[in-house]
Amino acid sequence: MNESAAGPPGAARWVLVLGVSSGFGAATARAFAREGFDVLGVHLDRKQGLEAVGALLGEIEAMGRKAHFINKNAADDTAREEMIHEFSRVLDGGQIHVVLHTLAFGSLVYYVPPTSQEKAASRKQIEMTLDVMANSLVYWVQSLLQRELLAQGGRVYAMTSSGSHTAWESYGPVSAAKAALEAHIRQLCMELAPHRITINAVLAGVTKTPALAKIPGHDRLEAKAVSKNPHHRLTRPEDVASCLVELSRPGTYWMTGNVIRVDGGEDFCA
Question: Domains in the chain, please, with CATH?
Fold first, then answer.
């Protein structure tokens, strides 16, 4: 049987969550800890967010698992190399078996504003959004492989959204980033195959997260999602986290390069 994200029998299993402090990241950290994984995490938070991070660390440790989180900018090249060096020390010869990229920092602005009082998206805003929400996935995968920290047979996931193929109000820079992210997934699928590492994008339904709350008109998005979804509710972070645990089992070694919908059927329904 192919080596998988489960890792060799008896060996420590590690998951790395980029964007661990809330939403999909926090739910995924909890789900994998319950499954017996130790957790590495990256987040960028001020005082209020740090309280939630501390609570999450306590939950994971109460399950008998190790957790090591770093509060730095995951999209900064220097910070990334510093964090990988620190993670290497924590792993102490071990490797990471699952990676989740769920960085959700970007600009929500019009390309062409409806009024002259509003500013159009700048080059800096567009490029920053692409760099954080899409390109950083490539750089993390490169760095982890160069340091031999990503295990053969591992799993890599990145959160996309239906915005990758749908136009939403003032969502242009993020929409472009999600489309680019999916293109990176396809290319990495081919290039990671010799390492027996799978990589997939995960398209969740509309989910009440801090990132959603920043989208103008998010209340209308929520109402539309509930009306479309055949289950008549929003997707929950725990729905996605549970699927990621299942997708990281041995039998999914041939599933790679996909956009996997975890939305209860929402995206297909009119």
Answer: 14-262 (3.40.50.720)
